[in-house]
Write a structure and sequence with these properties.
heterodimer; A: mainly alpha; 75% helix; 0% strand; B: mainly alpha; ABC transporter involved in vitamin B12 uptake, BtuC; 2 strands; 73% helix; 1% strand
Chain lengths: 313, 318
Amino acid sequence: MLRLPPARYLRDLLPALSLALVLAAIAWLNPRAISYLGFTLMLNLAVPIALATVAQMFVIAGNDLDLSIGPFVSFVACVGATWLMDQPVVGVLLLVAAVGVYAALGAIIQWRKLPSIVVTLGMSFVWQGLAILILPKPGGSAPVWLQTLMNIQPPFLPFPIVAGLVIAAAAWFGLMRTSYGAILRGSGGNAAAIGRAGWSLLKIKAVLFALAGLFGVLSGLALLGVTTSADANIGSGYTLLSIAGVILGGGEFVGGIVSPIGAVIGALTLALAASPLLTFLDIPPDWQVGANGVILIVVLAARAQIGRKAVGT
Amino acid sequence: MSVTTLLSRPWIWSFLGAAVVFILAVSFTGGVGAGGMITTALALAVFTIVVGLGQMIVITLGPGNVDLSLPANIGLASAVSMTVMNGSDSLVAAGLLAALGCGLAIGIANYLMIRTLGIPPIVATLSSSFIVQSVDIAYGRGLQIKPPPGFGDFINLQILGVPVSAIFVLLLSAVIAIALRRTVYGRSVLAVGQNARAALFAGLAVERTRAMTYGLCGMLGGLDGALLAGYFQGANVDIGNEYLLSSIAVVVIGGTSVAGGKASVPGIWGASLFLVLLLTMLNTFGVSAGVRLVATGIIIVAVIVAAGSRSLSSPGSN
């Protein structure tokens, strides 16, 4: 009973292994980067990416996909840099309303049995348009408290790592350790069974999307805190990054199989592989995007191979 | 065909939507430029239709199948075709072949990643799009080759207000529609999309069907790249960017089932015309870029909600 096949351990450990591999490569290329300051700088964009990945994870847990999270993060950053700065009450109300829109989308998707890909695709135009309307030209400025928060220097551990731990712990506890979290994941595993057991699938979907909206808001604000000003395209890469992060972290597109801790580790790996590693490798700018693609393929292929073995044993 | 049977076709709604949008736009201008509006809409819709057809066949393969590498593919093929044509009319055929080959290679690479490495299609095609984009940036930098005059003229040529490119793509669409209904390959695509396991046990060449589909989608992306470069007078790394979202949007608005196994070629036409005319309408209203995006998004969501679960409730989907 106690002996699990090693491949299964390997599969659970894979997100951490890929992160370790990227870290080892960085340490080998530039030992000085492995320091308090080095991590603070290298991971400075990891916090918003991790939050967006967790947002995507909630949607994927219900067998859906959010193609609008990137533009949504842009929208939030634009609201943060304008309304939240000038009229905090209006800003907060706007962001609360945005989370409400997410919940309503979840409810509509469940009620009308709509493909989430298309609904969120349409919403991606809406958020992008709203972001442009709020902030036609790059600019605005982050509220001081946000900048202060993102620049905290805690003792021993750099802020991005502490933040990553807090995000992972919160998402893990909520989704993996509470009874309603199990119901939420169950809706991705076998929606019919959860429905027959008396749970409202409408409410479950609304809650999953509301959580995605909430973490999307946190991601946009964190991004704004790091960059201190916003523009309407600031989060455009986040849709694809967040999906890749969830899958890298051990999540599956179907079946309610997700791992909050893995997702955060996946996001950190992507953030590190995206630019610090490539900079140290002296990859010319033209090929950096391509190198990202290669790294993604290698890690995902390794994950798939180990996953296959785990199923086989 | 009676009205009821017509209304039961999944694609009819996209044409109705296109008609409504067109009438709104024309009534705003007081009837001025209605013909020109249709000509321009057809000429622009052609590009969405070509990639939409490719995306449609891939999505028909079943849940999870999608090609996110189309924009990068279009960008690279536009550069490759312009380089091979090198501004000379005698090399147009060679340039088109090169674009098709380039797209085919990307499609097959996508399939191999999905099959041999076991990566889900969404992330596999996403990763490959990064690599293709890099190749394009490195290869196409500062590429300032104009399309051969004959090729550019041909794409902009009109007969009685109908763009020749639209006629050409109509033929292509007919071939694809017939292939889906009447050939072993086409019927295999539908069967795999409805139930891949059943298709396998029925002795169909499931993997060959998948490989051919990703290859075909890649080729259509490559063709689109060459056509776009001809229309816009040159290759560009970003030339295909807008087709990531629109290729998926036209598939679904057109009534193709995202659950797989049920495709609609006419729907691609209706939905592409709908999207292009929607843009034309908002432009005639003179709204800003932000309002245009918000309106487009809300209308897409509204259309999907109004059409309801129609596209998912096909008897074939599981």
